[in-house]
TrEMBL record:
<dbReference type="Pfam" id="PF03960">
    <property type="entry name" value="ArsC"/>
</dbReference>
<comment type="similarity">
    <text>Belongs to the ArsC family.</text>
</comment>
<dbReference type="InterPro" id="IPR006659">
    <property type="entry name" value="Arsenate_reductase"/>
</dbReference>
<keyword id="KW-0560">Oxidoreductase</keyword>
<dbReference type="InterPro" id="IPR006660">
    <property type="entry name" value="Arsenate_reductase-like"/>
</dbReference>
<protein>
    <submittedName>
        <fullName>Arsenate reductase</fullName>
        <ecNumber>1.20.4.1</ecNumber>
    </submittedName>
</protein>
<dbReference type="GO" id="GO:0008794">
    <property type="term" value="F:arsenate reductase (glutaredoxin) activity"/>
</dbReference>
<dbReference type="InterPro" id="IPR036249">
    <property type="entry name" value="Thioredoxin-like_sf"/>
</dbReference>
């Protein structure tokens, strides 16, 4: 199990606390420092069953500068979103937990973290 975190994020810290309390075996990836490649983002999206716009933090300043809210949310625009997430990792929703069964969840709630633990 791997968890993509931003240490400054309270949701990330809460997820780590719960994982520790449950004795989970996991690896931490500080994705702002160890930036995911476009291929890694494609893989985690596949595991999540989501599209890149589903995990984009559109309220971030860089999102506003890029104008992502106006980008097409379709197959033709998909790679543009993935590239933006890789070039500007602050846009990636957090925390993302990859489960042992090959799936992943966005662990913003205790229920989502527990879901990842149960897989």
């Amino acid at each position: 199990m791997e968890i993509w975190i931003n240490p400054a994020c309270s949701k990330c810290r809460s997820a780590l606390t719960l994982l520790d309390a449950e004795g989970a075996d996991y690896t931490v990836r500080r994705y702002l420092e160890d930036v995911p490649t476009p291929e890694e983002i494609r893989e985690v999206l596949k595991r999540l069953g989501l599209e890149p716009w589903d995990i984009t933090r559109t309220g971030e300043d860089i999102a506003k500068e890029l104008g992502v809210k106006d980008w097409p949310r379709d197959e033709a625009g998909r790679e543009r979103w993935i590239e933006a997430l890789s070039q500007h990792p602050k846009l990636i929703q957090r925390p993302i937990i990859t489960a042992e069964d090959g799936t992943a969840v966005v662990g913003r709630s205790e229920e989502a973290v527990r879901d990842a633990l149960s897989r």
